[in-house]
Each structure stands twice: as C-alpha cells, then as structure tokens.
Amino acid sequence: MTTAAPHRIVVADDSAFMRRMLTDALSGADTEIVGVAANGDEAIAMCERERPDVLSLDLAMPGRDGIGVLRALRQRHIDIPVVVVSAFSPSYGVRAVDALAEGAFELVAKPAAQSGLDAFVRELESKVHAAAETKLRRPGSAAAAGASAPAAAPVARTAPARPPAPWRRQATATATRVVIIACSTGGPRALAQLLPELPDSLGRGTLIVQHMPSGFTASLAARLDGSCALHVKEAANGDAIGPDRVLLAPGGSHLRLTEDGRGRVSEDEAIGGLRPRADLTIVDAVRVWGERVLLVVLTGMGRDGLEGARAVHHAGGRVLVEAESSCVVYGMPRAIVGERLADEELDLSALSSAICAGAAP
Predict the structure, then answer these.
(1) Which of 8, 85, 144, 162 fits a disulfide with 52 by CB distance 3.0 to 4.6 angstroms?
(2) What pLDDT, on a 0 to 100 scale, did the predictor assign at position 138?
C-alpha cells in the first residue's frame, strides 16, 4: 500500500515569531515545511526552487510585499496556491480583496490574542490542506497525471425532470425571479468574472452571500460595483432589492430577510463556523418569494447552500451550480449535485447566459 506524499509548504513572514508559529502549526505527518522566507524576494526564490504545494504568505513585508509576490508568481507562471496569513482590520479590507483578486486561494487572519490560537491553527490547517489538495487535482499535477487517457471536455449537465411539489404555486406571467448567488473559496475571482457579464437590470434583484470575515465585504462590493453595470453594495438593515441592485451579505454577519424582502443584518451565532451562512439567506428568500427564487452556487469549500437548494427545489424554484471544470474548490456545488438538486451544472463562462434566461419572466 502506497502512502501519500506530504504536502510541501513554504512559509513567508517578516516576523520571526510568526514564522516559528506557522512552522510549528503546519508541521505534521502529512506536511513538510520546505522553505521559510523573511521577505517577498526570498519567498519568490523558494517557490521557484522548491515548487511547493502551498505558499503561506504575509501581506505586510518590507520590500516586495505580499501583493507583489502574488503578481510576480503570476508573471513567472508559477502556479502555486497561496494562503494569505496576515493581520486584517476594516482598514485592511482593501488589501485582502486585492490579494484575492491577484489570485490568492484563501485568507486567514492572524490571531489577535493567545486565546484565539487554537481556532487560528484549525482554520490555517484546514485552508492549507484544501489548497494543497486543489493543486494536486489540477491538470498537469502528479495526481491528475495518473489518468490513462485525457478527460473528455466538460459539458453542461441538466438534472432529470422533477415532479412538481404539491404546494407549488402557479407563477404569474410577469413573475421575474430573485437571483441569489452563494460562494466561498475562489468566490471573489468568480464574481469578478461573472458580474461584468450581467446586464444593468436582472430579474427582481440579486443577493450575494460570499464567506468573508468582517471588514472585507465593503471593499469587495466597491470593487465589483466599479466593474459591472449593476449597482453592488454591502447590505444594511432595511435595504430593498431592485432589478439594478446587488446586495452583498456583510462579512461576519448573517444576511436575513424580513417578511417584505428587505435586508436584516443578524449577529446570531455562526452556523458550522460560518457567518454569513448562505442557507439562512436562501431559506428566507424562499419564504418571501417561493418559486421565484433562482439560486446560483459557485466555487467553495463545504456544504453551505445545500439546505437552501433543497428549499428552492421544494418550492419549485431553479438551481444552477458551477461545474467542477471552472471551480477553484468543487465543494458547495458538489454537495448540491450529489443530492440531485441542481437543474443545471455549467462552467463559469456559461453561467451568465443561464442566469439571464432563468431570471426572466
């Protein structure tokens, strides 16, 4: 029986204390630290030499900072998943979103105090392992090369016809749909591609739930707003949807909906470690709009969106998911496909047309 090779990791941080903490946290039977860098130039050199499975990268470093490292790796065609491990605050949200836009796989906030160390280590290990597994599944990797024949080109998959739910309401001829988009790891880059392809008026309105910590989503909303025809804003209490408006769930809070469909920001406990939780927003939307909900689930780890998809399915709404061919992490879509709740599974490049068609009367 063969044993899987350990994931090879390079750690880059200008703090000797953090380098030691990260090295200790990531050293284990299934991981190997193959390089430790104190600045951006050292990180690039180590990645060129070692070609690790994952780079753990601080953003704030002297000389070439983390954003500079991400750009240099891309320019040199060094394809390594990067988990950004840095100190974040609301004022630092722009830099975090910049890192994701430049290709970072995930973000992990450095612990603010010793009391948060255990949670930090668990989150770090989870995201680093997910990044390493993603690299191993990419075309051209050692794991992917084990196939004896090239894979067929991905095609759109359509779910078999489903029987109508007994409580399904009849839609009126003018009942346009509310669009809800749920995503996690890889979501900001997917949204940056998808939203500019959408028109300046879409259905009854659009809601987005992207898993992010507090302080980041205002910057993400501003970046998306500047790149698409729709108006994108971070949701606040009392916000109403509209055909030209996209409401983005605020990081660190749940986005709930009132009986008349207005936004309500909730500080209730995280569910499954997630706040915002897409399932809550989707179920609320089904309660308000029923079969007029169009759910779109993009790349992301975990199973958030599954319960929401089940509610949309039972109400007679429509569910689209991103295909594995374009997902950074095929976790959230996989969960829905596995339960046969997806009406269509499409590459990211084909989703905008499907959304426009599905949101129409």
Answers:
(1) 8
(2) 54
What is the per-residue pLDDT for 323? Answer: 98
pLDDT per residue over 133-143, tens digit each?
887 655 444 44
Please, what are the domains in the chain?
7-138 (3.40.50.2300), 175-359 (3.40.50.180)
Per-residue DSSP letter, 257: E
Question: How confident is the model at residue 338, as a pLDDT?
Answer: 97
**C-alpha distance from residue 65 to each of 20, 175, 308, 356 (Å):** 19, 50, 40, 40
Burial classification of residue 63, based on how many CB atoms lie within 10 Å of its CB (0-12 exposed, 13-18 middle, 19 or more buried): exposed
Q: Which residues pair with 176 in a beta bridge?
A: none
Exposure letters 11-31 (e unless 16+ CB within 10 A, then b): bbbbeeebbebbeebbeeeeb
Task: Assess contact for 308 and 338: CB atoms under 8 A.
Answer: no
The pLDDT of residue 136: 61
- Of 28, 24, 187, the residue nearest 101 (C-alpha): 187
Report the number of secondary-structure helices (H) and strands (E) in the chain.
Answer: 11, 15
The Cα diameter of the chain in Å comes to 64
**Residue 137: predicted pLDDT:** 59
Provide the token pair at 321.
Answer: 């998911």
- 274 DSSP 8-state letter: B
Give the span between the Cα atoms of 117 and 92, in whole angstroms. 21
Q: How far apart are CA 123 and CA 121, in angstroms?
A: 5
Tell me the C-alpha to C-alpha distance, in Å, between residue 162 and each of 158, 279, 341.
Answer: 11, 22, 9
Could you say which residues of the chain have pLDDT below 50? 1-2, 139-155, 159-174
- Element at 57 (helix H, strand E): strand 54-57
Residue 86 CA to its chain's centroid (Å):
18
Q: Count Cβ neighbours within 10 Å for each residue of 296-316 and write b for 16 or more, e otherwise.
A: bbbbbbbbbbbbbbbbbbbbb
Q: Active-site residue numbers?
A: 184, 211, 304
- State how far Cα 182 lies from the chain centre: 8
Q: Which two tokens stand for residue 174?
A: 């003018």
CA-nearest of 251, 250, 254 to 271 is: 254
